[in-house]
Amino acid sequence: MMKAKVYVTIKQNVLDPQGSAVQGALHALGFGEVGKARVGKYVELELQTSDKNEAEARVKAMCEKLLANTVIEDYRYELEQA
Amino acid sequence: MMKAKVYVTIKQNVLDPQGSAVQGALHALGFGEVGKARVGKYVELELQTSDKNEAEARVKAMCEKLLANTVIEDYRYELEQA
C-alpha cells in the first residue's frame, strides 16, 4: 500500500480571499508580524498499489481531474510506502 | 523574513465527510485503488521576523487560536527562512 500527500495551492497571481481573511483575523488577534497568507488544501490518500511509477501517474491524473482546478490552482504531491 | 507552512488535518477518529466525498468521486472516476481519503487545510504564512524560536512559539499560538480547531483537528508546521 502507498500513501499520497497532495498539496493544492492557489496560483501566485490569483486572488485568495480566504487567505486575506486569515491574514486579517491573525492581525486582529495581535499577530501583526503576519504578511501574506495563502490557504490551500491538503489531501491524504491511501492507494492499494505498490508500484510507485504507476501510483505517481494515477495521482497526477486524480489531481488533474478532480483534486485541483488547474486554471487557478497548482498542485504537488509526495508518495511514500505505508 | 520567515515562511511558515501549516498543515491542519482532521483527527484520526473524527468523521471526515469531505474525505468520504473525495473518495467516492475518485471511485466514480475510475480510481478504484483509492482507500481512505482525508482532506485537510494547508496554510502558508509570511512572517516579518527572523528569530526562529520566537516564530515557532507565535505560529503555535496562531494554530491554537485560529487556524486549527484542536477539538477535532491536529496541526503541524514547518518554518523556513525565506
From TrEMBL, chains A, B:
This protein's record includes keyword Cytoplasm: yes
Keywords: ATP-binding, Cytoplasm, Ligase, Nucleotide-binding, Purine biosynthesis
Localization annotation: Cytoplasm
Pathway: Purine metabolism; IMP biosynthesis via de novo pathway; 5-amino-1-(5-phospho-D-ribosyl)imidazole from N(2)-formyl-N(1)-(5-phospho-D-ribosyl)glycinamide: step 1/2
GO molecular function: phosphoribosylformylglycinamidine synthase activity
Known catalytic reactions: N(2)-formyl-N(1)-(5-phospho-beta-D-ribosyl)glycinamide + L-glutamine + ATP + H2O = 2-formamido-N(1)-(5-O-phospho-beta-D-ribosyl)acetamidine + L-glutamate + ADP + phosphate + H(+)
Assigned EC number: 6.3.5.3
Stored Gene3D superfamilies: Phosphoribosylformylglycinamidine synthase subunit PurS
InterPro entries the UniProt entry points to: PurS, PurS-like_sf
Principal place of residence: cytoplasm
Source domain of life: Bacteria
UniProt function note: Part of the phosphoribosylformylglycinamidine synthase complex involved in the purines biosynthetic pathway. Catalyzes the ATP-dependent conversion of formylglycinamide ribonucleotide (FGAR) and glutamine to yield formylglycinamidine ribonucleotide (FGAM) and glutamate. The FGAM synthase complex is composed of three subunits. PurQ produces an ammonia molecule by converting glutamine to glutamate. PurL transfers the ammonia molecule to FGAR to form FGAM in an ATP-dependent manner.
Assembly behavior: Part of the FGAM synthase complex composed of 1 PurL, 1 PurQ and 2 PurS subunits.
Family recorded in the similarity comment: Belongs to the PurS family.
Name the record gives this protein: Phosphoribosylformylglycinamidine synthase subunit PurS
Source organism of this protein record: Paenibacillus chartarius
Gene this chain is encoded by: purS
